[in-house]
Design a protein that fits this description.
The chain is an alpha+beta fold and 510 residues long. The chain contains 7 helices and 14 strands. Strand 13 and strand 14 (404-408) form a beta hairpin.
Length: 510
């Protein structure tokens, strides 16, 4: 056992010696590389030569798109590489070591920053990177680091929430011009399988270019690496939580047209819906972007809905005014053109049955015949009956209103003559009897005139009541026609406004 223990100790000691040898070789290499090295000097053999640098990014996640402040926050993996001509070595001389890792503050690094940075402090550069730099034996330095950038983005909210945005990330050296640092495009893709899909935005495409721009401040051009993100908003959240409730409220207004005007709840229903739309618009005001240059489609849609709700309230008031006008005493007759257009034409197309009897028929004669007394009343026509009595009658009455009365016919008089001739013993002469009979007939005529005047007054009242009832019925029919007409107009307006506002905005970008 002692022999085995000694062997184990020898093996462990050899391993420790080999590790120490390796560590000492790396340490000697790093010490050799940084001997007489200054990170303040560009790593070139001649000052006229530029540093060839490659810059690229890999997008990991779109964290937030701030529509109001026009900021976009993204999580990005930054990929930088450049050639340091002052740090090269031969791997065979250093135990086959081809690369070492050192802290970023030990070597020269290109000051490539985000030009359109939107952080509160200037944190669009190298201070964001907390990883180490890999030094290759060929002099190439690779710096891979994750970072979170907040950059500006000109957001066009015209088609919100069906909008498509174009956001740009512009990276470049803040100090060195094209002669100091020459940028090259990283061939690796920006979107990979590591990308976390956003629940609100879809990336349609990413374009990357390297530009050389001459700014007004400087005499030499500066190079930058520009990445253009084409983003498309996913509108399901806004359709389900913002647009659909509004359409439901508008649809509820349509049912208000089915309520009869006598119910008295139509105004309350319309006002309640109008207030609901206003309150809902106030609640989602935080969702709508603040922009005075363009008005979002969603805001336009809500304003149209509020306008339609207000118009439905106005039309409801018009219908109620017309309907309750029929209950007024002495309501004015309906104009002929109104009756023709609404009651005769539109009522047929809107499926409303209106009584075909016109108001003029209220002026027709109301004829009533009483056969027992053989009396005919002609009402509503002012004329005088000039017809002569039939059957030898001797007595007829023409009153001031033209009502003719045939009271005694010839056969009745003959019977009276025969009766009074046989009774000569009681009466003096036939002439006296006829004179007495005439007196009685005169008194009967007076009573009959009184009765006729009363009947005329009663029939005049009935006729007047029927006339106004017909006028009231016409106004009620007009209210029904207008109610149905406003229903179809409102339905057509809602459908046309919703489709003309929302659908074009959807199809333009989708």
């Amino acid at each position: 056992m002692l022999r085995n223990f000694a062997a184990m100790v020898f093996v462990l000691s050899m391993i420790d010696m080999s590790n120490g040898a390796i560590e000492s070789v790396q340490g000697k290499l790093i010490k050799s590389l940084f001997t007489n090295y200054s990170k303040q000097v560009r790593p070139v053999t001649h000052q006229s030569l530029p540093v060839n640098a490659t810059f690229g990014i890999e997008l990991m996640q779109i964290i937030k798109v701030n529509d109001r402040d026009q900021h976009v926050t993204s999580k990005i993996w930054v990929r930088q590489s450049w050639i340091n001509m002052l740090m090269k070595w031969e791997p065979t001389l250093w135990g086959g070591i081809k690369s070492v890792q050192v802290d970023a503050d030990m070597v020269w690094t290109p000051d490539i920053v985000l030009y359109n940075n939107a952080d509160d402090t200037f944190t669009g550069g190298t201070e964001k990177y907390k990883t180490r730099i890999t030094l290759e034996y060929t002099g190439q330095h690779n710096w891979l680091a994750p970072a979170t950038f907040t950059h500006t983005c000109a957001i066009n909210i015209r088609y919100f929430p069906f909008d498509k945005q174009v956001c740009i990330l512009k990276f470049g050296s803040w100090t060195f011009n094209k002669a100091g640092i020459t940028l090259f495009e990283d061939p690796r893709p920006v979107i990979t399988s590591q990308y976390v899909v956003s629940s609100e935005w879809e990336i349609l495409s990413v374009e990357k270019t390297v530009n050389s721009i001459l700014y007004e401040c400087c005499a030499d051009p500066y190079m930058d690496a520009t990445f253009t993100l084409n983003l498309l908003r996913k509108p399901l959240y806004y359709v389900f939580n913002v647009i659909t409730p509004c359409l439901v409220l508008v649809t509820t207004i349509l049912f208000g047209f089915f309520l009869p005007p006598e119910s008295g709840e139509r105004i309350s229903l319309t006002i309640t819906i109008l207030l609901a739309v206003a309150v809902f618009l106030q609640l989602i005001s935080d969702t709508l972007p603040r922009n005075s240059e363009t008005i979002p489609v969603l805001a336009i849609f809500y304003m149209v809905v509020m306008t339609e709700s207000a118009l439905s309230l106005i039309t409801t008031c018009i219908v109620l005014i017309i309907h309750h006008r029929s209950s007024e005493k002495g309501a004015a007759p309906m104009p002929t053109w109104v009756r023709h257009v609404f009651l005769n034409v539109l009522a047929k197309y809107l499926g409303i049955r209106v009584s075909s009897k016109s108001r003029n028929e209220c002026d027709k004669d109301f004829v009533k015949t009483e056969s027992g007394a053989n009396i005919v009343y002609h009402l509503g026509q002012h004329h005088t009956d000039k017809r002569s009595p039939q059957d030898g009658s001797k007595y007829h009455i023409n009153n001031s209103n033209g009502y003719s009365r045939h009271l005694i016919n010839g056969s009745a008089e003959r019977r009276l003559n025969n009766r009074y001739t046989n009774d000569l013993d009681t009466h003096h002469t036939l002439q006296d009897m006829l004179a007495e009979q005439r007196k009685e007939n005169v008194s009967k005529d007076k009573n009959l005139n009184v009765i006729l005047n009363e009947l005329q007054m009663i029939t005049s009242v009935i006729q007047h009541k029927s006339y106004h009832e017909k006028i009231q019925e016409e106004w009620k029919s007009l209210a029904k026609v207008l109610d149905r007409l406003f229903f179809w107009l409102f339905l057509l307006t809602v459908v046309v406004s919703a489709t003309s506002i929302l659908l074009p905005a959807y199809y333009i970008n989708h």
